[in-house]
Amino acid sequence: MPSVSWKFTVSALALIGAHATGVARAQTMIATKPATTALDPGSPQTEALTPVAPWVLDYGENRCTMSRAFGREDAPIYLTLQKTTPGDLVDYAILGSDLRPNTREPVEAYFFPGDPVATIKSSYRVGRGDTEGLLFASKINLSGEAGADAELSASEIAALRNGKERAVEFFELRSGLREPLTFATGSMHEPLAALRACVDDLMRGHGVDPAVLEKATSRAKTKDPMRWLRAIVREVPGGRWNGTVTMTMIVDVEGKVEQCWSRLPEPGEGAAAFVCGQMMKRARFEPAQDEEGNPIKDYTNFSFTFSNR
């Protein structure tokens, strides 16, 4: 029997455009003030790519995607930010021609100023049409730890975050491609605020109210996981897959998995469908509770790793 490991995480990875299922998409174009291309003296001296089109917000079935073209109009490089759940975690994709992604080395990326340089160990080579690129997930940390350190209110933390988003000048990818890339994004408040609003709408469409969850007294927690995980392991087809499936689940008021979808390129055909089917059939949770102790719907992210070793 192949070994299977599992973990519930906050990681979120998705192949750009890979899971569209004919659902109508709404696109919104967001114009932001062009940024200066002058870089901070302490940063690598890479020439900043300037935008050649507005930000475009794409409402997908299970994810929201914000994308903008930079560089040359005849051969643009796309900076794409994608979210499937609320929070600071964002899936980034850099897409273009002749980028030569290198998934063997860690990715270093950040927004300047205000966002610490993040080192991401796992990345994925992705493609869309005639383009190729790099996909990775990282938290946007523009508000830092100020809220926890100063015991700020939620509104004060949001104001701090919004101000730092407006102050952003560029996004830089230091490693992961053939050469570093710098994108002269300018203010990121408008695109990130639109992305957050889109994800909140997405959650409400799945019956999850982000405003209620913010005040929840408890979130969905696994219930006797080893029992149902052993049952899932027994059903794994021997030697069929080797790799990780990263998923999002909607947990209903009875603690059952009501909906489930993949968030990254699956390690083999059928792996994501297998994991989702098993989780909906077997997984059980203690449901989230609102301020008054009533059960409410919640979302959770998880990874399920197959290994033939």
Structure overview:
Keywords: Signal. Residues 1-26 form the signal peptide. This is TonB C-terminal domain-containing protein. The protein is an alpha+beta fold. The chain folds into 2 domains: 3-205, no CATH class; 221-307, TolA/TonB C-terminal domain. Helix content is 20%, strand content 34%. It has helices at residues 146-150, 154-166, 189-205, 210-214, 225-235, 271-282, and strands spanning 3-8, 26-30, 48-49, 55-59, 64-71, 76-83, 89-96, 107-112, 118-120, 124-128, 131-139, 170-173, 181-183, 221-222, 243-251, 257-262, 285-286, 288-289, 295-296, 298-307. A 7-stranded antiparallel β-sheet has the order 2-4-5-6-7-11-10, with helices on one face. Strands 3-13-12-8-9 form a 5-stranded mixed β-sheet, with no helix packed on it. Strands 1-20-15-16 form a 4-stranded antiparallel β-sheet, with helices on one face. A hairpin with a 5-residue loop joins β8 (107-112) and β9 (118-120). α5 (225-235) crosses α6. It is globular.
Set out the fold topology.
Elements: E1 3-8, E2 26-30, E3 48-49, E4 55-59, E5 64-71, E6 76-83, E7 89-96, E8 107-112, E9 118-120, E10 124-128, E11 131-139, H1 146-150, H2 154-166, E12 170-173, E13 181-183, H3 189-205, H4 210-214, E14 221-222, H5 225-235, E15 243-251, E16 257-262, H6 271-282, E17 285-286, E18 288-289, E19 295-296, E20 298-307
Parallel strand pairs: 3-13
Antiparallel strand pairs: 1-20, 2-4, 4-5, 5-6, 6-7, 7-11, 8-9, 8-12, 10-11, 12-13, 14-17, 15-16, 15-20, 18-19
